[in-house]
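Chains adopt folds. We examine one example:
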Amino acid sequence: MKRMFLLPTVFTIFLVLFGCSLPSEELSPSQVVPYSIHDGVVSYPDNLYFPSRVTLTISMYGETANNGTDILIVSQQITNPQRFPVNYTLRYLQDETESFSSLRIEYSLTREGDQTPYMRSLLTDINPADLTVTRRTTLTRIR
C-alpha cells in the first residue's frame, strides 16, 4: 500500500523540481504585439423592461482629419447579456488609432430578428490618448 503512494509523490517532486527550472523564452521587442485595451461599462435604464434574446454591440470608429470619414477600428458583440451593467473590453492595435483626429464609441442593443437597434448610446470626440479612461454609459431608448 505504501508503494502506491510513493510513486505519485516521487513523480510530483520530479515535476516540481525539473518543471519549474526549464528556461523560459522571453519575447523580443520585435515579437511583442502593440495591442491596446479600452474597457468600459454599459448600463440599462432601471425603469424599462429588459427583453431576452438581445445583442449588445460596442463599436469604435475613427474620424479622419482630412475628410471626416468614419472608419471602424474594432467591434465587439455580446449576445444575450444576462444582466446589466455589462463590462466590455475592446482590443485594438495602437497604431490604428494614432492616425485619427477623434474617436467615437457607439453602443447599440438589438432584439433578435430586428435590423435596427431599439436602444443606443454614443460617446463622441474622444481623444485617442484618452482611451485608457474607463467609459461608462447608459443606453437610451430610440423613439
